[in-house]
Every structure is written in C-alpha cells, then in structure tokens.
Design a protein that fits this description.
The protein is an alpha+beta fold. The chain contains 4 helices and 12 strands. Strands 1-2-3-4-5-6-7-8-9-10-11-12 form a 12-stranded antiparallel β-barrel. Strand 8 (about 115-120) and strand 9 (about 125-130) form a beta hairpin. The longest helix has 10 residues, at about 135-145. The protein is globular and about 45 Å long. It starts with a strand and ends in a 17-residue tail after the last helix.
Length: about 220
Amino acid sequence: MTRTLNLQALRRLRTAPGGQLDCLISFSDGSGTSRPVAYVERELPPNGISAYLAVRKTGARSFVLWADEHRQARVATLVTVSAGSGRTQFQVLGPQGEPLGMFTRDKAFSRGLRSRWTVSRAGSPDAVGYKGRLFWWCVWWLCSPLLPIILVAALFNGGGDYPRGPRRIKWRSGGQVPLEFRSSGDTVHLFAPELDWRLGAALAALIPSFDGWIGDPWDRRKD
C-alpha cells in the first residue's frame, strides 16, 4: 500500500514558547483521510535568522519535525553534514539522535545535467533520483524567453502559482521505484514498505526548499 506525505505551508501559525512553525506534513496510508504527523520549523543557529539565510546560500538546511504544534516531542531532525562544490549532504535523525538515513543533493551541472538526489540507509542500496525528465527540461528552456510575460500575467491575476521548472523526482534502486516526489501538492509517495515514513516527511520538507529563483521556498522568510 502506498503511503503519502504532503507538505502544507503554515506561515501564520505561532505557538508558545515563541517562534513560528512553518509547515504541516500530513500522512495518508491510502485507506482513509490523511492526518497531521509533523510540524516543521527551521532550527536556527545562535546568530538567528540572518545566519541561517547566509549558510542557506551554500545549500545548507536545518529543521525540526515536531509531533505537535506545542513542540512537546520531536519526530525527526534534519541537519547538514557537508555543503559546497555542488554537493550537499543531509542527515536525518530520530527523536533520540539516532540516524535514520542520509540525503545527498548534487546540484544540476555539477555531476550531470539535472539535480540528483540520493537517499541512503544503512543496510540498503542507495536510491537515486533526478529532478524532472530531460524532455520537459528541454521544453522549459525553449519556453524560457516567455517567462517574463508569464510572471507579469501571474502578478496581474493576483499572484497564484508561478512557473517553475520540472520538479518530479522518481528514485530507483535495484530496478525498483521505492519512492517518488510529485510537484503537485509537494507530496512524497513511499512505495517500499520498509521505508521509514519519517524519511519521507523530511524529504517532503527539504525538496521544496530548493525551488530556485522563482517561487517562495518556505524556509527563506526573513522574520
């Protein structure tokens, strides 16, 4: 049975003891209505938001997945292990700091034409996925001269969805497709039953933070 994790922005939700929760992640196992399983919040360095935004430019990210909106228990934590030279590695930790898995992002044109995402888990072969299909990237670049016109039209229509490049990622491992990210609704689909749903939740929050120069990544706010 396919499990689905969906990211939803919660930019105005503020809770004690202060600060702001950024996103809500809902979970569905395909048998009924989805339910909230994690609230996402940036984990800021000692120097605060300005320091986070500075290191963010290198590809670094750091956030917490809380079990409830009152921050009483952690579901998981994502930390940056290394960043630079077109490659960034992230580790996902459980509530007690136990390692759940590793994500590696290779920036487009650093080790290939498309961004490459690798999901690594102890005792399992790596799952490798590429952002978008080459065909749709060709279509995107052919239409790129029209982007200014499309952006202006979007502004006059009250904002809405801005044009973005292909974002779908399908991971493959041993001839199988264990998981997939779909841009519609920012959802991660887990097809392999052995995959920890917390890894899927961390991916659902991480991938949209790399939306590029068009759009508004949830972790880039300045307040």
